[in-house]
């Protein structure tokens, strides 16, 4: 694999990771907290319903988890393509 093909494969993998992260974030913050809130209202979590929990805390926790997972996956991807920083 030459440098140009490796660069394209690296960015393709990076963009796919970003797309997956954005879909998960949108599903949790917009889908569960807003669109699916009426369906989740009967499930109790921490003294409130699950839809409210996703709107107030769940989407923030998912966002923080996505940041951590993205950093770990990008470090792995950087090492795979030889562009890591030590």
Task: Give your account of this protein's structure.
By secondary structure, the chain is mostly helical. The chain has one domain. The chain is built from three helices and two strands; from the N terminus they run ααββα. The chain has helices spanning 3-35, 37-40, 50-81, and strands at 44-45, 48-49. The protein has a two-stranded antiparallel sheet with strand order 1-2. Helix 1 runs antiparallel to helix 3 (50-81). It is elongated, with a radius of gyration of 18 Å. InterPro entries: Na_symporter_ssu (IPR019886). Keywords: Membrane, Transmembrane, Transmembrane helix. Residues 9-84 form the Sodium symporter small subunit domain.
Short description:
By secondary structure, this protein is mainly alpha-helical.
- Helix fraction, binned, reads over 70%
Task: State Rg.
Answer: 18 Å
How many helix segments?
3
The figure for the number of domains is 1
Question: What is the averaged pLDDT score?
Answer: 89
Enumerate the strands of the largest sheet in spatial order, edge to edge or round the barrel.
1-2
Indicate the low-confidence ranges by residue numbers. none
The secondary structure category is mainly alpha
Span of the ends, CA to CA = 24 Å
Strand proportion: under 5%
Instruction: Work out the number of β strands.
Output: 2
Largest sheet: 2 strands, antiparallel
């Amino acid at each position: 694999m030459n440098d140009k093909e490796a660069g394209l494969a690296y960015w393709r993998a990076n963009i796919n990771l970003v797309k997956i992260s954005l879909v998960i974030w949108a599903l949790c913050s917009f889908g569960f907290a807003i669109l699916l809130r009426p369906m989740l209202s009967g499930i109790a979590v921490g003294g409130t319903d699950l839809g409210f929990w996703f709107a107030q805390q769940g989407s923030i926790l998912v966002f923080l988890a996505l940041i951590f997972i993205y950093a770990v996956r990008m470090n792995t991807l950087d090492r795979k393509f030889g562009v890591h920083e030590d």
